[in-house]
Specification:
Bound molecules: NADP nicotinamide-adenine-dinucleotide phosphate
Number of helices: 14
Largest sheet: 8 strands, mixed
Radius of gyration: 24 Å
Low-confidence stretches: 1-18
Structural class: alpha/beta
Length: 519
């Protein structure tokens, strides 16, 4: 059954011609973070695809784990859960640091004899155009060099996997006077390792997960750290990072132990953490646990009040830490809650006209999270733009994977598929399963492209509305919400198991063929 869809070109939007010089490939993967590396594994080992190219704008695989190198950067999900099921990370530690997580990704191709020849580094896809006649995509790239960008290769692909990530583009707020600051100023995701923080006065703007990992580390060496907090966050205790010697040995050496730990952690996350988004059974007890840690670690009542959140747990991405509150108690750390008025040459001035001097400013201010594919112009059927036309009423993708109007394209970690209560690698693996089913269906058809059905999207929208209506996600501002419209773009909002079930539905019910106009 086909879908009847108008493929006429809107005025002024001509389809890009397939150039003579273009490199043809069956599948083009955009990005080589966890999603892109996972796609590489699945393409070669599960789907038997030989002709594919992975384009990455950085000079290495790793995505956020390549770019975030600030002191204290770590993953607050156990490595056994934050890895792919056919390559469980054996690192015998409860929470891996950035080096270890990046090492896992860098080592994955070698462990599975994957062909690294598919990878193209320092190449940024800036335009993706669908060709209605041929049912294929043309991708234009820029070569990324130290001196800037130059026009790069053009690829023509039958299918595109967008693994471009969401926490990619650092967000630095525009603050009056920031250009006159005389010292170094940089974002957590662009850490300047040339700067020695020892004995310096450091200002940190923001108190999200990145800031709360960073602050305890730099407070040990800086002369003083001034933290500018706009909103306090929920902080849950993080169990000790170290395992006992027997568990350590078992996790390092036994695949059975790794699997067991993975399954246990999966169900614990689904049972305990996942219900908080819908204010389920564990929300109250976990808030109590967080408050208890706060009372124990922050005896100063005034400071405690300043860091007590006034929104329900789960509304923002919660924090797991056992050393953030103790860092606030140090003599060389000050928490400032007065709003920032301006930045001057020597420091930061708040609304009370108080100047606090700083040698270095760190922006721990998050990412452009709700502008998916920010620097990419994506045009689907009939030359319709994803951002201007298809997403006119808000950003959405079926299970974070499929888009109306973009045939033969699938995303990893598109809108609505983030989880704060489990492992985003597992969410991606569930999505890879769905993408595999889409590909099988596509290959079973002749002369057609594959696209999510309008009725599937209708059903998905109804379900998503219900998830959001029954959640705490509208109870505060967060990076999950579009800044202009307030639309909740993430997270998924239910358990990993529920997501697994959704991604394993019969694809014949949810996807349909799009006829190629050139055939
Ligand atoms: P974030 O959660 O978006 O936090 C940004 C912080 O900057 C917030 O405290 C925010 O305050 C503040 N801020 C933004 N604009 C500001 C302004 N104009 N003035 C003052 N403060 C401002 O960013 P993040 O900490 O980098 O974390 C982003 C995501 O990365 C996390 O949610 C998580 O998913 C991921 N992450 C994961 C791990 C891990 O261990 N797995 C570690 C780090 C990060 P408001 O709250 O008021 O907006």
């Amino acid at each position: 059954m086909g879908i009847s869809i108008d493929v006429s070109q809107p005025e002024g939007k001509k389809q890009m011609a397939t150039t003579e010089q273009a490199t043809r490939t069956d599948i083009l993967v955009v990005g080589s973070g966890f999603g892109g590396v996972g796609a590489h594994l699945y393409l070669e080992k599960e789907w038997g695809v030989k002709n594919f190219i992975i384009v990455e704008k950085e000079s290495n695989v790793g995505g956020i784990w390549w770019k975030n190198t600030y002191p204290g950067v770590a993953c607050d999900v156990p490595p056994q859960l934050y890895s792919y099921s056919r390559d469980i990370d054996p690192t015998p530690i409860r929470y891996p640091n950035q080096r270890s997580t990046l090492g896992y990704l860098e080592g994955l191709p070698g462990r599975h004899n994957l062909d690294r020849g598919h990878l193209r580094f320092n190449a940024r896809v800036y335009a993706l155009d669908y060709n209605d006649r041929m049912g294929e995509w043309t991708a234009k790239t820029k070569n990324v060099g130290t001196d800037g960008e130059t026009e790069g290769s053009v690829y023509v692909a039958k299918f595109v996997i967008l693994a471009a990530g969401q926490l990619d583009e650092p967000f630095v707020p525009g603050i009056i006077g920031q250009e006159v600051f005389q010292g170094p100023a940089f974002h957590t995701a662009r850490w300047d390792h040339d700067q020695d923080l020892r004995g310096k006065k450091v200002a940190v703007i923001g108190t999200g997960p990145s800031a709360t990992q960073l602050i305890p580390e730099i407070a040990k060496i800086a002369q003083n750290v001034t933290i500018y907090q706009r909103t306090p966050n929920w902080v849950l205790p993080r169990p000790s990072a170290e395992f006992g010697p027997i568990t350590k040995w078992a996790l390092k050496n036994s695949t059975k132990a790794q699997r067991l730990y993975r399954v246990g952690a999966y169900w614990l996350a689904d049972f305990l953490l996942s219900p908080i988004t819908s204010r389920g059974w564990s929300a109250g007890p976990l808030e109590w646990v967080a408050r208890r840690q706060l009372r124990k670690q922050v005896p100063d009542r005034a400071l405690r009040e300043k860091v007590t959140p006034d929104f329900p747990l789960g509304c923002k991405r919660f924090i797991l830490s056992q050393d953030y509150y103790p860092a606030l108690m140090r003599g060389n750390v000050e928490l400032v809650t007065d709003p920032i008025k301006e930045i001057v040459a020597t420091g930061i001035v708040t609304d009370t006209n108080t100047l606090r001097e700083a040698d270095i400013i760190v922006y721990a201010t998050g990412f452009h999270t709700t502008e998916f594919y920010k620097n990419m112009d994506i045009r689907g059927r009939g030359g319709r733009s994803l951002k201007e036309d298809i997403w006119e009423n808000g950003q959405e993708a079926y299970l974070g994977v499929a888009f109306e109007g973009l045939p033969n394209l699938a995303a990893l970690h598109g809108p609505g598929s983030f989880t704060a209560a489990g492992s985003n690698v597992i969410m991606k693996e569930h999505q890879l399963h769905l993408i595999g089913n889409m590909l099988k269906l596509l290959w079973s058809w002749k002369n057609a492209a594959i696209e999510v059905l309008p009725e599937t999207m209708e059903r998905y929208r109804r379900e998503r509305d219900e998830i959001i209506r029954n959640s705490v996600l509208l109870g505060c501002d967060s990076w999950y919400r579009d800044k202009q419209t307030g639309q909740v773009v993430n997270p998924y909002g239910r358990s990993m198991w529920s997501f697994r079930r959704q991604t394993r539905r019969n694809p014949r019910e949810d996807f349909g063929p799009i006829s190629l106009t050139g055939e």
